[in-house]
Amino acid sequence: MEIREALDSDLDDVLLVERLAFGEEAEAELVKNMMHDRSAKPLLSLIALQNEQPVGHILFTKAHLTTDANIAIAILAPLAVVPDAQNQGIGGKLIQEGVERLGRSGVELVFLAGYPAYYSRHGFQPASNLGFEPTYPTPKEYPDAWMVRELRPGAIASFSGKVICCDALNKPEYWRE
Ligand SMILES: CC(C)(COP(=O)(O)OP(=O)(O)OC[C@H]1O[C@@H](n2cnc3c(N)ncnc32)[C@H](O)[C@@H]1OP(=O)(O)O)[C@@H](O)C(=O)NCCC(=O)NCCS
Question: What is the residue-wise DSSP string for 157-169?
Answer without folding.
Answer: HH--EEEE--GGG
